[in-house]
Amino acid sequence: MPSTLxxxxxxxxxxxxxxxxERRPLRDNDVRIDIGFCGICxxxxxxxxxxxxxxxxxxxxxHEITGVVAEVGAAVTEFSAGDRVGVGxxxxxxxxxxxxxxxxxxYCTEGFVKTYSARDRDGTVTLGGYSxxxxxxxxxxxxxxxxxxxxxxxxxxxxxxTVYSPLCRWQAGPGMNVGVLGMGGLGHxxxxxxxxxxxxxxxxxxxxxxxxxxxxxxxxxxxxxxxRAELAGLAGHFDLLVNTVPALLDVDxxxxxxxxxxxxxxxxxxxxxxASYNVFSLLSARRSIAGSSIGGMxxxxxxxxxxxxxxxxxxxxxISADRVPxxxxxLSGVRYxxxxxxxxxxxx
Length: 348
What we know:
seven-stranded mixed sheet, single chain, alpha/beta
């Protein structure tokens, strides 16, 4: 079995440990990727802390992966050695259900196989991108356009497509008022992408020091959500609210900001997923509450091509592998995504 260096959490509460892990030998439809960069997602912390009670330890996190193809299997025709590629949150699915065959593998009826902390269809446990290399089936590999540098593109593989997918689903564009709740790793890309689609974008957040950034990314305004008078002035204003906040919110307060037929779509995943709302907040204006997962493989490639066309990448701080524990402690303070330079893990 080929081996590679990785950062691993041996058990819940244990510190990161540099280690050697095994990757499977190349199958006919596999792509072996030399990883250049891997973003740090809030989901990594949820799994590392076992917030949802389903983490498979030892854990190698990381599902915002960019790098270069090192080798391809005999049946692979879309990729070749040297190609710039990426891997996001999925590495397998049944491939046969209606969502899979329609290009929405993220909603696979049997459940997609996560890039890490999941049991693959052959029974092995997946290990993610905090590592020097990875082997992935070709249908779960995307091409990184030449216009995007690999480090800044890494967070697009999760954070980017997570906001792109609902913006497409609810047809964000000219004449539409879109609010983005929170401006962290997801939210800042939500602002950039929604603005590039032509929507009028408002950033709703609790960090006034990010106002200038929000306006620079394309927002028409910044609203401090602690200023209730400001919020009240936006009652009925929005067609779509994209909630990127990984914490519980006063749902009714935000539903009041939606106009007739408006939708609050949740993409942030809180540690405590239980929320409540008053049903009359929905009935009064035919409002909806929705959720959206990442994006399928076709949509992920579309997102990358869209971002290349509009010059969109994540705002990042690139760090060495030895700074990962520090980054986990300060994840809410980064502007706006930590990305690990995987070369600092040492020689493969």
